[in-house]
Design brief:
Layout: H1 23-42, H2 63-74, E1 77-78, E2 81-82, H3 87-100, H4 105-112, H5 120-125, H6 130-135, H7 140-146
Antiparallel strand pairs: 1-2
């Protein structure tokens, strides 16, 4: 859930929302937590409270550092350097992928916490690729020879 907290206030009432996840991800998160709990018991360590604990097992408070650490650990590189990822990049990626899959804009806006009819979703979050542009090109000469009309 994305919701109001003492130190965080969403921009609008549309910002408070649940974020659904697929069954596969839920099962993997549950399995990861179970694996961590088993390892803690085997090592006589403390019970695990978080699936993605902070450095000393507590709550993560700096997602930028956590993401940078994950990128470095996974060796996700551009050239020789770890790529710079942000949570905002993920928001834009999911908006773009959902658009490519034909998800209605209203549902994408809801997922992102944008107000219905907001232009921000399409203007800022959805990106197109050269392949997207090529996919909508049609050959007028072929349309003429088959007798079809261009829309």
């Amino acid at each position: 859930m994305i919701q109001r907290k003492e130190e965080f206030t969403p921009k609008s009432r549309h910002s408070e929302r649940g974020i659904p996840i697929c069954d596969t991800l839920m099962k993997r998160l549950i399995a990861a937590k179970a694996d961590d709990e088993t390892a803690a018991r085997e090592n006589n360590g403390p019970s695990v409270r978080y699936v993605f604990p902070g450095r000393f097992g507590g709550k993560r408070t700096d997602m930028r550092k956590a993401l940078a650490s994950a990128v470095k650990k996974a060796k996700v590189l551009r050239g020789e350097q770890p790529i710079h990822l942000t949570m905002h990049v993920f928001r834009k990626a999911i908006a773009t992928w959902m658009t490519m899959k034909g998800v209605p804009t209203r549902i994408i806006q809801s997922h992102l916490g944008h107000a219905p009819g907001s232009r921000v979703t399409d203007q800022v979050y959805v990106h197109t690729t050269p392949d997207d542009h090529r996919a909508v090109i049609f050959d007028l000469s072929k349309m003429r020879s088959t007798g079809k009309r261009a829309a």
